[in-house]
Design a protein that fits this description.
- By secondary structure, this protein is mainly α.
- It starts with 7 loop residues before the first helix and ends with a helix.
Length: about 270
């Protein structure tokens, strides 16, 4: 059976076009970030990264990630389990609700929390009476980060668990395994790479989130600025070397994420 092939010149032209687009829109900007970051030398780079405000932004970003990722991991596994192992009324609605953060602008997401917890929001007066701060404070940043990263783990696991079916779990139950034994010895080993992949994507998005966090943070230097917000402030102050130095941290994380993604795909 003959297989039709495109002419060689077509193959080379399409390949060259793809490589040109890849280099111009991804590789070149990434290289430019690191070049600008080290333009004034290693000493200036270290000074920018070791600045107290930068360290505060790093700590806040890691705090938000450290809370958002475990919460979304637990929710993602639970949601994927319920959706793929049971048939119930409202199942399609639950799937649609999980996808809401994908369809809503991050800025709108931040405004939702302002509407709920701001000074003039639905719960603003009650929070003020009890001296609880959510908006323009760390809790608001964590909430915004949790919201925008909400679907990643669940959306990675749902199609994987649907494709695996329920036969192995049913066999484990027939053989006398408890629910927890079935989960840890059958389900979890089968979904471990998908779970890890979802966590990697969730972590990368949490670290790089700008829109929703920008709305609820208040841009208080040294208190409510995450790494992306700190980059914006430095750039607006014409501190380009400092801005690119901080941006290089996020770029390095993005590169590491791509490497992990490739490794997971290869292992899986």
């Amino acid at each position: 059976m003959s297989i039709r092939k495109d002419p060689v010149w077509v193959q080379w032209s399409l390949t060259a076009l793809a490589m040109l687009a890849l280099g111009g829109f991804i590789v070149l900007p990434l290289v430019a970030v690191f070049v600008q970051a080290f333009e004034k030398g290693w000493a200036a780079y270290v000074t920018a990264v070791a600045d107290p405000n930068t360290l505060s932004a790093i700590r806040l970003s890691l705090l938000a990630v450290g809370i958002a990722v475990p919460l979304n991991l637990v929710f993602g596994v639970a949601a994927a389990w319920v959706i793929t192992k049971f048939q119930f009324r409202g199942r399609d609605l639950l799937v649609s609700l999980i996808d809401i953060p994908f369809g809503v602008s991050p800025v709108i997401s931040g405004l939702i929390f302002i509407l709920l917890f701001g000074a003039n929001g639905w719960f603003g007066q009650w929070l003020a009476d009890h001296d609880v701060r959510i908006v323009f404070a760390v809790p608001g940043i964590v909430l915004a980060t949790v919201f925008v990263t909400f679907p990643f783990v669940a959306r990675e696991l749902i199609p994987l668990m649907e494709s695996q079916g329920t036969e192995e779990e049913e066999a484990a139950l027939v053989l006398g395994a408890s629910a927890w034994q079935m989960f840890f010895r059958v389900t979890l080993p089968n979904i471990k790479w998908g779970l890890f992949y979802g966590v990697v994507l969730c972590t990368a998005r949490a670290l790089g989130e700008f829109g929703a966090v920008s709305v609820v943070s208040g841009h208080i230097r040294g208190e409510t600025n995450t790494l992306p917000l700190h980059v914006e402030i430095l750039y607006n102050e014409y501190n380009y070397s400092g801005a690119f130095a901080v941006a290089s941290i996020l770029s390095a994380i993005a590169v590491i994420t791509l490497v992990l993604k490739k490794w997971i795909s290869h292992e899986h």
